[in-house]
Specification:
Layout lengths: L1 E3 H4 L3 E4 L2 E12 L4 E8 L8 E4 L4 E5 L4 E4 L3 H5 L12 H11 L37 H12 L7 E3 H4 L3 E4 L2 E12 L5 E7 L8 E5 L3 E5 L4 E4 L3 H5 L9
Parallel strand pairs: 2-7, 9-14
Antiparallel strand pairs: 1-10, 2-3, 3-4, 3-8, 4-5, 6-7, 9-10, 10-11, 11-12, 13-14
Helix pairs in contact: 3-4
């Protein structure tokens, strides 16, 4: 089933021993077109510090109650690496973050999440809390250090959905509107569709555009380019409730 990114805002995030906070933003991978992290405002218990929570750690989702439960403790969240959530997240920061929670890395393979299509398999499909690296061999620390060096000059590919909302969208033959929302698969967290508001060009209409139609994103120009013509956009499906 597909879920609105906008509607994820203010979802409650629960640890195994209590409330962590509420979703204020999500970071998506601009290459793989997938949600990689929830940006969670922790409220008063961590002085409103914002932390990243990965879908890898999810063990239960209650869409009716708007609650996401993760297999981690509040203490782990408290001790997690500090990351500036108002900037694109680097691969180095991700290595530190995933290592802290004992999650395997999702990059370096052909699947959306490592060699798999859904995130929980990356962490072994287990709901155990706080899996730690093999401290006896020390191999995990060595590989982390090597990986950090290899990826230290990588371009950041994690972007804020809050920032992208409102970006202008253009077809191959002209501008068509702006991004109003995104729809994600609730199991894989892949972005399947953009909801485009075409009111500046095609008054009163919104359309669903498949994420695979994105040809490129200019972050400086705040512009998303599609490999579709305006007529193809007109022929696109209408979001539910907007007919």
């Amino acid at each position: 089933m597909l879920r609105s990114v906008k509607e994820l805002k203010n979802y409650q995030i629960d640890a195994t021993d209590g409330l962590i906070g509420h979703v204020k933003d999500v970071f998506f991978d601009d290459e793989a077109r997938a949600i990689r992290y929830f940006v969670v405002d922790t409220g008063t218990w961590l002085s409103s510090r914002k932390v990243l929570i990965s879908p890898i750690g999810l063990n239960h989702t209650d869409w009716k109650e708007k609650t996401l439960s993760v297999a981690t403790t509040k203490e782990q969240v408290k001790n997690s690496p500090h990351i500036h959530t108002d900037k694109p997240v680097s691969r180095q920061h991700e290595i530190q973050h995933l290592g802290h929670y004992g999650h395997q890395r999702y990059w370096g393979s052909t699947g959306l999440w490592g060699s798999n299509a859904v995130p929980f398999i990356v962490s072994g499909g287990s709901t155990s809390v706080g899996r730690q690296p093999d401290s006896e061999s020390g191999n995990e620390d060595i590989f982390s250090d090597i990986d950090a060096v290899v990826h230290r000059d990588d371009d950041p590919h994690l972007r804020s959905c809050n920032v992208v909302m409102g970006y202008h969208v253009e077809a191959t033959d002209g501008e068509i509107g702006h991004i109003e929302d995104m729809l994600v698969d609730e199991e894989s967290w892949a972005i399947r569709f953009l909801i485009i508001n075409t009111s500046n060009w095609w008054l009163g209409h919104k359309v669903l555009i498949e994420a695979q139609s994105i040809q490129g994103i200019s972050w400086n120009a705040k512009l998303v380019s599609l490999n579709l013509t305006r007529q193809e956009v007109k022929n696109a499906p209408i979001p539910e409730g907007n007919s």
